[in-house]
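W.,

You were right to be curious about this one. When I first looked at the sequence I had no strong expectations either way, so I just let the prediction run and decided to look at it fresh. Below is the sequence, 90 residues in total, followed by the output.
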Amino acid sequence: MLDWAGDLPDGALHGAQLEQVLHHARVLVDMRGVEASPFAAVRAHALNVRNGLVWLASERSLTLAVWFDDALGLASSPGRPVSIDPAEDE
């Protein structure tokens, strides 16, 4: 997402929304390989990026969102933004 954020179509995420999603994406990249990262923090950043991908609703972003769904165990809410982590609901 960080590589193609500059090529987003008109009407896609922009301004503060886009910056928020990109912030979470950058944090995920920075956390890669860091063993001390709390699982809940990684999951929270991943959910924010996943929701941003869903809001973009392009073929590329929805494909990536499905990968996030698989990794996060979100089979019950495919293609919809998630406001509360289902793992916290249990």
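Here's what jumped out at me. The two ends are 30 Å apart (CA to CA). And, maybe more interesting for your project: The first helix runs from residue 15 to 31.

Coffee later to discuss?

I.
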